[in-house]
Amino acid sequence: MIRMNPAKHVDSHMNELVSDLQTLIRQPSVSAKNEGIEECATLVQKILKKAGVKSEILRLKKGVAPIVYGEIKSKQNPAKTLMFYNHYDVQPAEPFDLWDDPPFSGNRKGNKIFGRGATDDKGELITRIKAVEACLKTTGDVPCNVKFVIEGEEETGSEHIEDYLKKYQKKFSCDGVIWEFGYVDAKNRPIVGLGMKGLLFVELSAKESIIDAHSSLAALIKNPAWRLIEAVKTLRDSDGKILIKDWYKEVTPFSKNDLEIIRKEPFDENDFKKEFGIKSFVGNKKGLEAKKALIGGATCNIAGFVSGYTGDGAKTVLPGSALVKIDFRLVPKMDPKKQISRLKRHLKSKGFSDVGIKVYHGEAAARTDSSNPFVTQVKDAADKSFGSSILNVSNAGTGPMYPFVEILKAPCISIGSTYMFAKIHSPNEFARVDLLKKTTKCMCLIMENFGKN
Amino acid sequence: MIRMNPAKHVDSHMNELVSDLQTLIRQPSVSAKNEGIEECATLVQKILKKAGVKSEILRLKKGVAPIVYGEIKSKQNPAKTLMFYNHYDVQPAEPFDLWDDPPFSGNRKGNKIFGRGATDDKGELITRIKAVEACLKTTGDVPCNVKFVIEGEEETGSEHIEDYLKKYQKKFSCDGVIWEFGYVDAKNRPIVGLGMKGLLFVELSAKESIIDAHSSLAALIKNPAWRLIEAVKTLRDSDGKILIKDWYKEVTPFSKNDLEIIRKEPFDENDFKKEFGIKSFVGNKKGLEAKKALIGGATCNIAGFVSGYTGDGAKTVLPGSALVKIDFRLVPKMDPKKQISRLKRHLKSKGFSDVGIKVYHGEAAARTDSSNPFVTQVKDAADKSFGSSILNVSNAGTGPMYPFVEILKAPCISIGSTYMFAKIHSPNEFARVDLLKKTTKCMCLIMENFGKN
To answer: Residues of B numbered 129-158 whose beta carbons fall under 8 angstroms of chain A's beta carbons: which are they?
Structure first.
């Protein structure tokens, strides 16, 4: 069998990759607003087809975003199966006015391609599709079986991925999963990530007067914004410690091995601070403590707060309602359901039974054991394509890794092209073309390493 | 001289009053947005002219809303001058979607006329113009000199009224002022109001990351919404007591006479609670304590709070900034400038030097002595036109009464047609036609009483 070089194919076909990515970006697919979801799924199928991958649309029930499922069997090694897990949906692009170009422009400026989803996750997805395409076009085969699971609800918390994994457990069976993204640090080193934090996203609300009232009546009518501030203030101290009873009860400390990996992991505090224009970290953490917080710290973040008049100028109004959106990052062993009960119990015990709680979703944290051979296979590929790479015990972010680990019983590793400062989830999100290229080559090597072992 | 009856003229010309009010409502004049201000001033002049009152536009400087000034001399009694103080600007109409009809419709449904400004203050203004018109049309004279001072910045805090009063001190000289509004309670009894609270409107802001960040970074990047919640929480206890050092320092207790008036003043707690759909008052106040709070209590109200993602669904974002709008109601002897310094000192001393403070405006409280003969003249007119009336030491709301009392040295009394539950400053604001009629007749009697004494 003639082995041509997939990497060279990647090099010479970057224009196509960029063009396909631009097409993907230009199709908005905001799951939070159910905007363009079906259209984007169809578009992903087209791009898979062009790459030589057969795909189908999997559905759970009406109102649930479909999964685009692609599969290609290996002739040379049909015994091992690698899954690429990605998502075609994106975060809302608001606030629109902070974007330099329109949010779904896909405009390329030099090494950068701009737009919501440019990196997260359309940029990542395209590298994997193009890696498979490179193998097929150069060797007529893939080094291992490949399965694509591309969902459409990741940015709203992958509410149905667990149901999909259960329903299609057999179809999805595999020996390893390459996670939907992978970070690249400030020095262009890719992170080989072995875990994800969990997430609990809730909305707390307070109501009082049935109408917005004149603020002169604040002498008598209670203010729901005050009420919510008082309630929320009991959740966390100013150093970031969560004050809900038993919140940390099941959390175990890092293992010796984990700590060793964490110590080795570089983290340039100054670069990080400079990027965000900040002077110090939460709780004034530094060095190892800062890294430990990012990798294994539970957080209670206010993602949104709104009450009353928020426009320009002064309006003397006493709002009738107030609303806060909070996301808690969970660490391994925290059970989202248990944490919700604890939050509810906390508010009740602090006298805030009147505060409404809406749970958007809960997701447990997951980690892959660093002794799994899959780790070495991925790290080797990353080292070769990027020059070096960094092992990471857990990403600070969240993804539905837990049900993959639980249901598919497969190790999950994140590796990809997401530049740490690519402004994902923010205005002016971009993808770097150089990283897209290296990552595509890395995916080729991962398939090769995985098939060989 | 033939004395015809102005009251009868009012009765038979209500359609004109309603129609002129609708015309006024249909001209939006939102001072907070500088929307329709000049147009509305011109419209007010037209309506004054139709009533037989000469008017002129007074200006201070560019960018300041003009005052519409109207004047008519009395032939029978040129020695005494009554001023009607009103405003032609209105509050912003947001949130638009909570209005049953468009906010500036002026639609009449039975006894009600709907629209922003229907009561506050276009409804009040029209009664005074039409009262003067009724006198002129029936007697060819007014019982005393009348001056109209109609400003365009009341809803943003009458920032320039003091400068206007100083500049036009001579032109505006008078012996008594009828304030821009007057409340009518749930049992249709008008309130003869002798005072107004002051107001301090500020905006506090916190900033951290220069960009909205992914909320997974909340383990390290500080959240400005948290920061602001912590800062704001130090301002007030849950019973409404303001915790800023020396905030109440200059406040004197009610006099024996004031307390007597307060005791006599009816206040139906249940009606009030029912109207707003609430179960209890701030600090669980009841009876006399509730009345004292409304009449003389200082408040710290959150008029608006905004940070991060406030749309539908979940967005895992770490906001870069947070903003809270707060209005403090001030009581007599509180100096707004002093209170601003105290607020600044408080934030600094509590460790919140990083929290930004923008002062929108400050205004002192004012009260007219209940022994002034003007009080009896107004109360008698109100008793006659409404059947009975109620004396009130101070309104819970704010107006620029302080500079009138200080500069013009004239007693100020509020009396008018503002039904207590007319939803002023809220969606579906309305004016009651029956009250507009009674108030117009009351204004005729006030001029008569004032001229005679």
So the answer is: 156-157
